[in-house]
C-alpha cells in the first residue's frame, strides 16, 4: 500500500504538520510511527488553534459593532464553530494517537495474499481533492487582490486555512474507509477464485481471519474520527442552512440582505463559499455507504458456496456460523454513536436545514417587526411633541 501513501503524500504532509494526523510515515520502515517531530506538530496545532480563537474573538470583533441582533447571532455561531473544530481535532488526535498508529499500519500495510487480485483503488477522489485544493488556492489569491482592508483579508485567509485543513482531514477519513472497502472487494474476488480448489478449507479459514481483521478496523476508524467529524458536519450543516436562508430571503424580499453584504461581489463570494461545505458530505457519506455495502456483499458471498464435496463438513459449518455472526452484528460507521454515517445522513442534514431555515425565518421576521414597531413609536412620539 506504499503506492497509495506516495500518491497522497501531499495530504499526509498537510494533516501531519498541523497535528490533524498525530503520526508520521517512515519511508525507511514503511510504517506509521510516533516521532519527536509529532510533538512539534502538536505545538503548531495548538498554537494555530489559539491564534484562530484570538483572531476571531478579539481582532475581528470590529465586525460585530454595527451588526443587527439577527446578523450578530449568525456570525457569532459561525465563528464559534470555526473556533471549536481545530481544538477538537488536535486534542482528539492527542488522546487517540496510539490507536491512530495501529489503525494506519494495518490499513496501509501490504498484503501479499489480497494484492494478488490486482484490484486497486480508483484515483477519482485523488483528482477530486487535487482540483479542490487548486480551487482554494485560487480563491485565496483572488480575495487577497480583491479585498481592500487588511481585516477582511485576514478573516478570509483564516477561513480558507481552516477549511483546507478540514477538507484534507475528511479526505484522510475517506482514504481509511475506502481501504476497508478495497480489502473487502479483494476478499470477495479471491473467494470466487479459490472456491473450486482442493485447498478451499484452508483458504476459508484465511478468508474469515482477514475479514475479521479488516472489519474490526471500522470500530477503530469510528474512535479516531468520530468527534472531529461531528463538529465538521455541524459546521457544514449551519453553513448550508445559511445559504438556503439567504436564497430564500433574496427570493422573498426581491433583493439581498444589505445589512450582511457590501455589494454583489461580496454576496456572490459568500454564497459560493457556503456552497463549498457540501464537499463535507461528498467525502464522508459516499465512501461509508459504499464500504458498508461491500462488507455485507463480501460476507454474503459465502452464502453461494455450493461445492457438493464439502456438504455437511467442517467448512460448511464454519460458513453457517460466519453468516449468522455477520448478519446479526453488522459493523457501521458511526459519529460518536449519534448517527450512522451512510445515505441517511443526507436526509438528516436536509431535514435539519429545513428546521433551521424555519427558525431563522421566524427570528428574522421578529426582528423586522420589532424594528418597525420601534420606528412607529418614535414617529408618533415626535409628532405628539411638536403639535400643540
UniProtKB/TrEMBL annotation:
Annotated compartments: Cell membrane
GO terms for cellular component: axon; dendrite; neuronal cell body; plasma membrane
TM stretches of this protein: 39-58, 70-95, 125-147, 159-182, 225-245, 345-363
Keyword terms: Cell membrane, Membrane, Receptor, Transducer, Transmembrane, Transmembrane helix
Predominant place of localization: membrane
Keyword Transmembrane assigned: yes
Top-rank taxon, per record: Eukaryota
Recorded coiled-coil stretches: none
GO biological process: chemosensory behavior; male courtship behavior; sensory perception of taste; signal transduction
Bilayer disposition of the protein: Multi-pass membrane protein
Role, per record: Gustatory receptor which mediates acceptance or avoidance behavior, depending on its substrates.
Protein family per UniProt: Belongs to the insect chemoreceptor superfamily. Gustatory receptor (GR) family.
Record-given protein name: Gustatory receptor
Organism: Anopheles coluzzii
Amino acid at each position: 500500500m506504499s503506492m497509495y501513501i506516495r500518491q497522497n503524500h501531499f495530504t499526509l504532509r498537510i494533516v501531519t504538520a498541523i497535528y490533524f494526523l498525530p503520526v508520521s510515515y517512515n519511508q525507511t520502515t514503511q510504517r506509521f510511527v510516533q516521532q519527536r517531530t509529532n510533538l512539534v506538530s502538536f505545538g503548531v496545532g495548538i498554537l494555530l488553534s489559539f491564534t484562530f480563537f484570538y483572531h476571531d474573538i478579539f481582532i475581528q470583533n470590529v465586525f460585530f459593532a454595527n451588526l443587527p441582533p439577527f446578523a450578530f447571532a449568525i456570525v457569532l455561531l459561525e465563528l464559534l464553530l470555526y473556533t471549536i473544530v481545530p481544538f477538537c481535532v488536535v486534542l482528539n488526535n492527542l488522546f487517540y494517537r496510539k490507536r491512530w498508529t495501529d489503525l494506519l499500519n494495518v490499513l496501509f500495510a501490504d498484503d501479499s495474499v489480497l494484492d494478488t487480485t490486482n484490484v486497486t483503488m480508483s484515483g477519482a477522489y485523488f483528482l477530486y481533492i487535487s482540483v479542490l485544493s487548486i480551487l482554494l488556492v485560487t480563491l485565496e489569491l483572488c480575495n487577497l487582490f480583491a479585498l481592500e482592508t487588511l481585516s477582511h483579508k485576514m478573516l478570509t485567509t483564516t477561513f480558507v486555512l481552516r477549511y483546507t485543513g478540514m477538507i484534507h482531514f475528511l479526505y484522510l477519513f475517506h482514504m481509511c474507509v475506502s481501504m476497508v472497502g478495497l480489502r473487502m472487494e479483494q476478499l470477495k474476488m479471491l473467494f470466487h477464485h479459490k472456491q473450486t480448489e482442493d485447498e478451499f478449507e484452508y483458504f476459508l479459514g484465511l478468508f474469515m481471519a482477514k475479514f475479521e481483521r479488516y472489519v474490526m478496523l471500522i470500530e477503530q476508524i469510528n474512535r479516531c474520527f468520530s468527534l472531529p467529524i461531528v463538529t465538521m458536519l455541524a459546521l457544514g450543516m449551519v453553513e448550508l442552512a445559511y445559504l438556503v436562508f439567504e436564497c430564500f430571503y433574496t427570493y422573498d424580499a426581491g433583493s439581498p440582505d444589505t445589512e450582511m453584504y457590501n455589494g454583489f461581489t461580496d454576496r456572490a463570494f459568500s454564497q459560493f463559499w457556503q456552497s463549498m461545505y457540501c464537499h463535507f458530505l461528498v467525502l464522508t457519506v459516499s465512501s461509508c455507504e459504499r464500504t458498508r455495502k461491500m462488507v455485507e456483499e463480501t460476507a454474503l458471498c459465502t452464502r453461494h458456496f455450493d461445492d457438493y464435496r464439502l456438504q455437511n463438513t467442517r467448512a460448511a459449518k464454519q460458513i453457517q456460523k460466519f453468516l449468522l455472526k455477520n448478519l446479526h452484528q453488522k459493523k457501521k460507521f458511526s459519529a460518536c454513536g449519534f448517527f450512522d454515517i451512510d445515505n441517511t445522513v443526507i436526509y438528516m442534514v436536509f431535514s435539519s436545514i429545513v428546521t433551521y431555515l424555519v427558525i431563522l425565518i421566524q427570528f428574522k421576521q421578529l426582528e423586522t417587526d420589532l424594528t418597525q414597531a420601534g420606528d412607529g413609536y418614535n414617529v408618533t412620539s415626535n409628532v405628539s411633541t411638536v403639535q400643540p
